[in-house]
Amino acid sequence: MQKKIAPENLEWKEGKVKNFFGKELISLKNGTLKLIKVAPQASYPLHHHPDKTEYAYVLKGSPEFEISGEHFTGKPDEFFIFPQNENHTILNKTDETCLMLVGAINH
Q: Is the pLDDT of residue 78 over 90?
């Protein structure tokens, strides 16, 4: 396992959902961590995970989150948890890019 990762040397890769791009920082059997860039006006469909808890730490922008029916507007230095089996989504309703650290703990 690498001990130092320089995200600027990694390529952005578009994920399963259009306009969501990631740089994988950690990928282990029990969890992951990615640097995520969300394009303006992008939205990730409402979904849930039966086998993991996800989380997001906002670095830049004002992403919106729906977690278990509650709505939140994020800002830099805020942390959000998406509990196992609970519906959640990420939206960027602004005209600027959002940047977040998004990870998962596998159960």
A: yes
